[in-house]
Amino acid sequence: MTDSALSPDTPSLYTGRFAPSPTGPLHFGSLLAALASYLDARAHHGRWLIRIEDLDPPREDPTAADSILRTLEAYGFEHDGEIRYQSQRHDAYQQNLDRLIHQQQAFPCQCSRKQLDGKPHHGNCHCCATADIAWRFLAPEKGEFCFDDGLQGRWCEDFSAIGDFVLKRRDGPWSYQLAVISDDIDQGITHIVRGIDLIDSTARQALLYQALNQPLPAWSHIPVALEANGQKLSKQNLARPIAADSISDTLFTALLWLRQQPPQTLRGAPAGELLSWAIAHWRSDALKGLQGIAAPDTFCRD
Question: CA–CA separation, 145 vs 206, rounded Å?
């Protein structure tokens, strides 16, 4: 029986996903998130979807989406269903925003970042609905949201630290929070496996699920890969793209990083063979309580 921190009542109902932003090629940190979500879904005999979160063109590389998809295919990942692109989903996000407005859970706001000074917004910038406004979610001012993370245990966030968060920005783009939950709901995502750097988004997303009268998914946040200086391995920190000519070695290293124990006899094995072994022996509990693990120097900044 598969040992996993995520335990759906009925394995066939499990639907997971990997949702990269196309800001550059896939790096080791992104591969770890893809691999953990893929293994947990497949170990539960579940579905695994790919979604490209392309809602911020100024930050995106026009070649990155295709590059990411080609890399995932080369590394043996097999997705279910069609690949979704958030840039094609504006009507769905508007529909959910309209519903929140109708329920008086979203309001127009003209506050600039300078006016807010980095502090949580608590309903003090309500204004008329004009073109030059952002839309914010009306969050509770008191209380907290707590959930049992599949890997990090009990996790709580105070509503006073969240404030009224943005749903649609003044300059037009949809917020990460509204777009993500809209697609997760529409795609029937039941289990979300992602990096712990995103755990602070969970309370905001849970508030939106509840406002839209939808059941919460199960969340599980894996540790992030760290550089020697303690910074997260990321495209912004010039992490190296994973190579197409060392797939087996990179996958084997990723499994070791995820605290799995592939036998040495699998070194150099084809990607499909490595993934088959990893699915059959997946133990996500090996990552419990871990928030950051040093990445091999090979994958750090150039």
Answer: 8
Which CATH class for the 89-204 domain? Answer: alpha beta
H/E stretch holding 181: helix 176-186
For 283, residues 6+ apart whose C-beta sits below 8 A from its C-beta are 3, 4, 259, 260
For the CA atoms of 111, 115, 117, 123, the dihedral, rounded to the nearest 10 degrees, stands at: -40
Dihedral sign, CA of 36, 40, 41, 43? positive
Residues forming CATH 3.40.50.620 domain(s) in the chain: 1-86+223-302, 89-204
On whether the 1-86+223-302 domain is CATH 3.40.190.10, my answer is no
User: Which helix (H) or strand (E) is 157 found in, with range?
Assistant: strand 153-158
Cα 183 to Cα 17, 163, 209, 217, 265, distances in angstroms: 11, 23, 11, 12, 41
Strands 106-109 and 153-158: unpaired
CA-to-CA distance for 146 and 28, rounded, in angstroms?
30
Per-residue pLDDT 10s for the chain (302 aa) are: 233 344 434 444 899 999 999 999 999 999 999 999 999 999 999 999 999 999 998 888 999 999 999 999 999 999 999 999 999 999 999 999 999 999 999 999 876 555 544 455 455 565 555 567 899 999 999 999 999 999 999 999 999 899 899 999 987 789 999 999 999 999 999 999 999 999 999 999 999 999 999 999 999 999 999 988 888 888 777 778 998 889 999 999 999 999 999 999 999 999 999 999 999 999 999 999 999 998 888 887 66
**Residues in contact with 207: Cβ distance below 8 Å, sequence separation at least 6, in sequence order:** 137, 139, 140, 145, 162
